[in-house]
Amino acid sequence: MNKALIDVLDRAQSWPQDAQVELERVALEIEAELTQSAYHATPEELAGIQRGLEAAEQGRFATEAEVRAVLAKYSRS
After folding, report:
1. CA–CA distance, 71 with 51 (Å, rounded to integer)
2. How many structural domains is the chain composed of?
């Protein structure tokens, strides 16, 4: 392990619990990619996917104008 990684992991011990959980989640995703393991969605992700599928079945889509408005709001131009 390189020194920068060791240092950040050492500092992470003092981070808030939710930040540590997020770091763990990201590290596990990276590990899964490196080992080419199948990704297993969290219950929250599965619920979001289900909401999206239900919205699609009901025909609830953003209009092109709505999408452009959101992109314009968050673009770095």
Report:
1. 22
2. 2
